[in-house]
Amino acid sequence: QVQLVESGGGLVQAGGSLRLSCAASGIKLSIDTMGWYRQAPGKQRELVAVLTSGERSNYADSVKGRFTISSGNAKNTVYLQMNSLKPEDPAIYYCKALCDGLKYWGQGTQVTVSS
User: Fold this and answer.
1) What pLDDT, on the 0 to 100 scale, is given for residue 54?
2) CA distances from 69 to 1, 35, 39, 98, 110 (A)
3) End-to-end alpha carbon distance in the chain
4) Who's near 28: CB < 8 A, 6+ residues apart?
5) Exposed/middle/buried for 77, CB within 10 Å: 0-12, 13-18, 19+?
6) Mean pLDDT, 10 residues at a time, over the chain (115 residues)?
């Protein structure tokens, strides 16, 4: 079975940085895309960043210039480097993989930003 496990969340002050990691296991299918989503209290889940198999990245306008998505050497990991965190960034961040047309989600990792 496929599992995605996120790590790296926590509490940081505004202006600080975090690096989220997503480790995928049990993936034997072709990974089309991997990305990060987030869901803040009272808001819908939204795309933060996505990395395609062609190594093209896309970002939400709200995080452009601050967040960077990258993949590991084995293509079974994806990272989200978050810099200059703002008070509006707190959310549960979810890793998502699209593998041969099937969607897989991690359990989420909490990011909290204090002022």
Assistant:
1) 74
2) 25, 8, 18, 16, 17
3) 40
4) none
5) middle
6) 92 97 79 91 96 87 97 83 96 92 94 94
pLDDT of residue 1: 79
Q: What tokens does 39 get?
A: 């869901």
The pLDDT, as a whole number, for residue 27 is 67
Where residue 89 falls (left for φ over 0; alpha for ψ -120 to 50; beta otherwise) is alpha
Give the residue from 36, 28, 75, 32 showing the smallest Cα distance to 54: 32
Residue 96's nearest CA partner among 50, 56, 43 is 50
Residues 6+ apart with CB under 8 A from 18: 8, 9, 10, 12, 82, 85, 111
pLDDT of amino acid 109? 97
Structure tokens given for 25: 């296991």
| Helix and strand element counts for the chain (H, E) | 0, 11
